[in-house]
Design goal:
With 97 residues, the chain is an all-alpha fold. Helix content is 62%, strand content 0%.
Amino acid sequence: MRPTLKDFKNKALANAEVSQEYDRLSAAYSLRKELIKIRKAAGLTQEEIAEILHTKKSNISRLESVHSKVSPNLSTIEAYAKAAGYRVEVKFIPQTR
């Protein structure tokens, strides 16, 4: 039987370095997935949200990309959320050790 993606992930996360990097990047991945989710829920394309924000589609694509090296400003995230009909709420969660 072929290994599943879950099997691969579990095996990779058994490596301490991989696990540490995964934890470091998880907030950025979650944010980008959430941006895509709210845009789609609003029924907007990248082109449409770019037009609302007076920017280019490539900027929206980069903002939503999990491979982007650029970390967006809070004001950018707030403007994106507003354009999709949402507001931003920031929560801090205690770390578990």
